[in-house]
Amino acid sequence: MRLSLASLGLLLMSAIATPADFPPPDKLPSAAEFPDVLTARDGTKVTTRKEWEEKRRPELKALFEHYMYGRFPEKPKQVTAKVLFEDAKALDGKGTLREVELTFGPPEWPKIYLLVATPNDKTPAACFVGPNFGGNHLLTPHEKVRVPTAWVPANYPGVEKGTNKATAAGRGKQADTWPLRQVVEKGYAVATFYCGDVQPDRPNVREGMRATLPPAEGGAPGDETATVMWWAWGCHRAVDFLVTDKAIDPKRLAVVGHSRLGKTALLAGAFDDRIAVVIPHQSGCGGAGPSRSKNPKAEPVKRITTVFPHWFCGHFSAFGDDTTKLPFDQHGLIAICAPRPVLLTNAEDDQWANPPGQFDMLAAAAPVYKLYGDDRPVAAKVPEQGKLSDERLGYFIRAGKHAMTPDDWKVYVQFADKWLR
């Protein structure tokens, strides 16, 4: 099920704040509690869908760009696709496996290599799409799947220490993180790419899509496009292809990501209405976890912006000592997805990702969903461990730690069975 926003493209730009209107972080007023998602910056209360779509929603998107993720890059004029290989007898004969090279700029720009698995007996299929951490080759032993040539973190299987080059020794070593056959057998397609195709996960190196833009004036950080935003933009380029693929149902796309790529999935869903369902898994601080955290075991803004400064734009680090000055919290990003379903999934032992705080974000986003006629978009309380709450703002928490597993995928499929039928 995919619900469109009738007035997209007809926004009243005069009513939307521009970056020039946004004060420096230290000049913003403090708000100890989560800002009301239906109260605009000028203090007016949003009471209708029209007001939400024309004023508050674009205002929130602009705020997230300016103070957190950086500028949303322009859509390329054209995305071209080249099939590198196709195997109709892959996944033990259950599906067709393809790898598609996506080109979207000058020859020197990076390319995205999208691994697509589709069921042989059910097309066009609903599709889970999202980035992976170490390369498509980690997800299958198939010898034709490309080994990435971009920089790869040293902790992934088969990566040469010192050079950070991926090798064929890693083939199939992390297949459980994106269990292609398991998902295809349930009638769903899967499309995934190495996040480093778009932007390698390291700071202070002008590589990937970061190298296509000029440095900030004077070298001073601000609202420059940050890595999580680049990864989300990469998801959108994958969607550009998927909506043209006859094996995929363009109205039934679900974006998925884990941890830092869970942050990416939520941002990608918020900024692209072609995505019908949004599933950020264990996304934590900077994702579905609140910046104004009440969980002492959760990762704080100051820590994440110190250790991973490149994930966010320069302005976000200014809130590390005082998150009360943020003019939004992460429920605003969830609300931007309305009325599309969002599922937050977590693990009990992974308090660093702030599972209880994430549920608070769903509850705080619910008023926007009510504008679309859903009077009960979220459960009244956190569901018991191991039980899916499949409301439009869904929630699931299991036993265990920080990981994406085949059991997690069973939950994604269960949620999709309700909302993508």
TrEMBL record:
Gene3D superfamilies: alpha/beta hydrolase (3.40.50.1820). Pfam families: GCE_fung. Keywords: Hydrolase, Serine esterase, Signal. InterPro entries: AB_hydrolase_fold, GCE-like_dom. Residues 1-19 form the signal peptide. GO terms for molecular function: carboxylic ester hydrolase activity. Residues 225-373 form the 4-O-methyl-glucuronoyl methylesterase-like domain. Coiled coil: none annotated. The keyword Ribonucleoprotein does not apply. This is Acetylxylan esterase. It comes from Gemmata obscuriglobus.
